[in-house]
Amino acid sequence: MKEISVSELQDNMFDAIGKEWMLVTAGTQEKFNMMTASWGGTGILWGKPVAFIFIRPERYTYEFIEEGDKLTLSFLGEEHKEVHKICGSKSGRDMDKVAASGLKPYVMEDGTISYEQARLVLVCKKLYADMIQEDKFVDKLLINRWYGEGHGNLHKMYILEIQHVYVK
């Protein structure tokens, strides 16, 4: 993969995150986990290029994100939807998602994990994290739609500094 500056990034991140989806991966080369995510965004905050993601505490990947200070956001392309379906519906607690999905882990220079299949990788460092709180919703209809009966816990929001951008 080739490193580019964040200002050289050509992707429409609305489509990349919302339609293509991404793999959020945290942990070490010895033990890591990944999950599919389609909620998040990118921008500038505190004078830094940032990404923001939302992870539910019951997700296995959450434990890995909490333990470390870095993670990757890997974009595989639309042709890898089956990988995303596995990584978004199965838990790494119960199965080897790497084997099941056919992913080929790739250790980045800083020790974070991505995948040979990735067309774009954002290597990120955690800057801020906080739980979404029910009493802070201005549009109360969102609570029932996304967190009502059977939807699970509220998400934790992470704001991440984008430290490196890699493209194929």
Automatic annotation (TrEMBL):
<dbReference type="GO" id="GO:0010181">
    <property type="term" value="F:FMN binding"/>
</dbReference>
<dbReference type="InterPro" id="IPR052174">
    <property type="entry name" value="Flavoredoxin"/>
</dbReference>
<dbReference type="Pfam" id="PF01613">
    <property type="entry name" value="Flavin_Reduct"/>
</dbReference>
<comment type="similarity">
    <text>Belongs to the flavoredoxin family.</text>
</comment>
<dbReference type="InterPro" id="IPR002563">
    <property type="entry name" value="Flavin_Rdtase-like_dom"/>
</dbReference>
<protein>
    <submittedName>
        <fullName>Flavin reductase family protein</fullName>
    </submittedName>
</protein>
<dbReference type="InterPro" id="IPR012349">
    <property type="entry name" value="Split_barrel_FMN-bd"/>
</dbReference>
<feature type="domain" description="Flavin reductase like">
    <location>
        <begin position="20"/>
        <end position="167"/>
    </location>
</feature>
<dbReference type="GO" id="GO:0016646">
    <property type="term" value="F:oxidoreductase activity, acting on the CH-NH group of donors, NAD or NADP as acceptor"/>
</dbReference>
